[in-house]
Amino acid sequence: MTALLSIRDLSVAYRGNGVEVPALQGVSLEIEAGERLAIIGESGSGKSTLALAIAGLLPGAALVRGTIEWSVSQLQTSRSFTPPSVLPDISLARGEIGSFAVGSPPATLEIGESSDDSAISPLAREMSGRTEGGVKELQPKFVPLLGRDIGFVFQDPSASLDPVMAVGKQIAEVAHTHLNLGGPRAYAKARTLLERVRLPDPGAAMRAYPHQLSGGQKQRVVIAAAIAAGPRLLIADEATSALDTIVQAEIVSLIRRLVAEDGMTLLFISHDIALAAELAERIAVFRHGKLLELGTTAEIVNAPRHAYTRALLDAHLGLDTGPLRRIGAPA
Amino acid sequence: MNGLRRLLRTPEAVAGTMILAVLFAMALSASLIFPGDPQAIAGPALLPPFQDWSLPFGTDRLGRDVLAELFHGARTSLAVGLVAAGAALVIGAVVGTLAGFAGGIVDEVLMRITDAFQTVPGFLLALAFVSIVGPSLGVVVAAIALGAWTGPARVARAEVLSIRERDYVAGAHVIGMHPLEIAFREVLPNALPPVLALSSVIVAAAILTEAALSFLGLGDPNRVTWGGMIAEGRAVLRTAPFLSIIPGIALVLTVLGVYLAGEGVVETTAVRRSLS
Amino acid sequence: MNRALALIRRRLVGSVFVLLIVIIGTFLLLEAAPGDAVDAYIVSTGGDTGLIEVLRHRWGLDQSELTRLANYLWALCHLDLGQSVTFSRPIRDVVLERLPTTLILMGSATALSFGLGSALGIYAGARPGSFRDRFLSIGSLALYAVPGFWLGLVLIVVFAVDLRWLPIGGIETIASGKTGLDRAADIATHLVLPVSALGFIYLALYLRMMRAGMAEAWRQDFVLAARARGLSRRRIVLAHVARNALLPLVTMLGLQSAQMLGGSVVIESVFAVPGLGRLAQEAVAGRDTPLLLGIILTSAVLVILINLLVDLAYALLDPRVGASEAGA
Asked: Is C242 part of the contact surface with chain A (CB cutoff 8 Å)?
């Protein structure tokens, strides 16, 4: 498995009134390309801070220590187009493009191919050294482009959209910015995206304003805008928490479908462990800014190692408790 | 003392307060430093400023001491500004509280009247009032207040509408307080802070309106006013522009001081509100 | 469109009431004025006092107050504002003559203050706390503290007297015989200083409002979401933040129209521009109360109309307006 990004000893603190409030403490985590990882925790556990840190959306007053390293090749290959700034490169034709389309991991690079890596990415700021042994080295200091490499879905769909601009235009401008599509083509792309997110009557929806749509419909629009440029990583930060239960389930299944279709990596942030268990392959449990436990969904649900995780599972009462236990059971 | 320290937190507030302090000093000391009638002839006509140190700002067309007129004019501007603003705030607060508290037809009628006063340009209204009743200080104050009370009225009404629903008002009802008593003893004091936040803007506007009225010849003829000085200077604009320019600078500094100090006061009350 | 029409209908009904109150108010003021139209007429024509009773009766001035109010209202329905004492002409004619000049003056000043003010406000608000932001903030506050008539005099001294670039006053060069485009250019030259004097004061207002609006808009959540989509800073500032911040300014346009009409009185006096404002000053000078009140009525109607237009514009700009009623 190749890592899409590698978080090493990340600590984030917020500065306020002369006091430092820690939000994340010494978090180390690797996110594999193409996986669906859920970050579970209660409020104050630091899960949203982690999402913002990965996306580079932390406020200026935040103190960050540690590193987040991205795998350039994972981000760059699979582009179905090339932005004008990228030099046409042979390695792109090496078959890595095609293999990425459906989420299967690309071949690991071997010694001697490092120079190709550096040629691929015009965005890398520095070259890395290479170790012997054929292990693929990540290139440090690479900063992914928001919107193009990372799609972010916030919790409150009403707060994610400009209230005085038609939703179609808001999606189109993402396509315009990152895909360099002119007016009509950007609008056509926006319309296609609205169809993909299963918005009823996409043609009318293009001209609608946010206040004319329901919460679930707005969130579909937000998701459409988030995936418009074909990002490799989709971060959903409590994306369903503000919605009704039935709508929640719809949005979750929408996200799962889109992630599978586009071969995206999904980072799903939630306080609802049951929801996460349905959607994710791996679960990371956070508490008080620290990574408590990390494992496959089956491991976490059936054999949690920490009392806190067990408490989270136990606290999930109700009709779902039965099936929750059954999902992870050995076939 | 704590309040004063908070008031003087920003450099703008400090500057504003200093300007106002100078102004008050000018107004209060006018009779002391320049006793006698400022409109009396003090020297040769149209003496330019900085030539004769007993007449630092020179003299006007009739030979009156410009600096003395400046000091005495400060009185008029300050007096009119403060009293007119105060009257506007009182009228507005009362009308707004009545409208917001009573609701129903009383509210409708009072709001339509407020609309009417807002539709007529305030300066034209003041013009008409002074023109009909006659120019004197009291009339000028009333004329300005007539145009300025609508702002506080709207703000007061909005505040009262939200306060009305609160528990302590219902409690007052229960113990049998008369509605008018509730309105003015319980509700109004709590509705005041946002209304008072308008005060500096209204004072500034009052000072400028008084100056404009005096400029057009509608001020109190027995008093020295900065607007009147500018009007007089207009006749000799080509040869002695300083006569119009100096009082104007005084006006700009005064109004600026009011704005700056006002923003400081708003900050202080806002902080105190959020702390309470 | 339906949304907008429904809005207009509601506002029109309310405006009629307001106008009625204004009319009654002006009538009461008219009554309060010492002496009535007959006295003024006698004085101006130098007629003998024996005619007073006759004229009073003929003009219905010896009737009860209520009857006189009814007569006044009836006359107004015919758009008859009465007779001007100083001009000995129907007030309506005098007012209509002077109205276009004031409209041009106000319109240009509004365009200047709104356009330049909001542009500078966007410029300042694009980088809150920066040097240009603070500079424009303090500068606009100082500008707003300037009395309009004094600014006009200063402009005259600098540009007309010292530099001689622009004329001192009036609306056009008298008896120049210019027509068409030449005349328009002549009028425009004469209007530069008055429009600047009137416009610069309110420019400060719109600048500050836009700046505050931008600061407010930056804090909105959708700005973070827009950043998360990778939109350029420029695009976020212009297409999103500024557009949202613009809305309160449009409302302000309507509220300012009344103030600007008042401001035009002094500006027109200073620059000797023959408009409605100057007419008001002449009415005051000539103790012509009916004319003054006729001007007030006209101004009220003007302000109501302008506010209606502004509300319409606002409804078009903000898609949320009237949505709940229209059931969209």
From this structure: no
Spell out, as residue ranges, where chain A has pLDDT lower than 70.
1, 73-142, 317-331
CA angle C51, C55, C60 (to 5 degrees): 155
Rg (chain B; Cα; Å): 22
CA distance C131 to chain A (A): 19
Q: Is residue A220 part of a domain?
A: no
Q: Which residues of C touch A156 (CB under 8 A)?
A: 221
| Mean pLDDT across chain C | 83
First to last CA, chain A: 24
The number of residues making up chain C comes to 328
Question: What is the structure's pLDDT at C146?
Answer: 93
Q: Is residue A303 part of a domain?
A: yes
Quick check: C154 contacting B, CB < 8 Å?
yes
- Mean pLDDT, to the nearest integer, of B194-211? 89
pLDDT at C327 over 70: no
Chains B and A are in contact, defined as 3 or more C-beta pairs closer than 8 angstroms = no
Q: For residue B101, what are the domain limits?
A: 11-29+64-275
Rounded Cα distance between C178 and C185, Å, is: 10
Among the ranges given (A73-77, A220-224, B16-20, B161-165), the one the predictor scored with the smallest mean pLDDT: A73-77
As for the ipTM of the complex, it is: 0.85
Dihedral angle computed from the Cα positions of residues B30, B36, B41 and B45, in that order, rounded to the nearest 10 degrees? -20
- Give the count of domains, chain B: 1
Contacts of B229 in chain C (CB under 8 A): none
Among the ranges given (B90-104, C139-153, C165-179, C200-214), the one the predictor scored with the smallest mean pLDDT: C165-179
Task: Provide the number of structural domains found in chain A.
Answer: 1
Q: At A65, which CATH number?
A: 3.40.50.300
Does any domain span residue B93? yes
> What pLDDT, in 10s, does the model give residues C263-284?
999 999 999 899 998 899 888 8
Per-residue pLDDT band at B209 (split at 50, 70, 90): very high
**The pLDDT value given to residue C200:** 92
pLDDT at B15 > cutoff 60: yes
Flag whether B153 is in a domain.
Answer: yes
Query: A279: domain range?
Result: 3-149+231-315
Q: Which residues of A, range 187-206, sit inside 8 Å of C by Cβ?
A: none
Q: What is the CATH number of the domain that holds B24?
A: 1.10.3720.10
Strand order in the sheet with A19-32: A19-32, A3-16, A62-70
Is C258 in contact with B122 (Cβ distance < 8 A)?
A: yes
Model-level pTM?
A: 0.77
Asked whether residue B79 is domain-assigned, the answer is yes
Q: What is the pLDDT of residue C41?
A: 62
Q: What average pLDDT does range B119-140 have in this prediction? A: 89
Task: Flag if A154 and C221 touch (Cβ within 8 Å).
Answer: yes
Residues 6+ away with beta carbon under 8 Å from B142: B87, B129, B133
Within a domain: A138? yes
- Chain C nearest-CA distance from B42, in A, is 26
Tens-digit pLDDT profile for residues A157-191:
988 999 889 999 999 999 999 988 888 999 999 99
| Domain annotation covers residue B36 | no
Residue A228: list chain C partners with CB under 8 A. Answer: 229
H or E element, residue C255? helix C243-271
Chain A CB contacts of C217 under 8 Å are none
How far apart are the CA of C301 and the nearest CA of chain B, in angstroms? 8
A211 touches chain C (CB under 8 A): yes
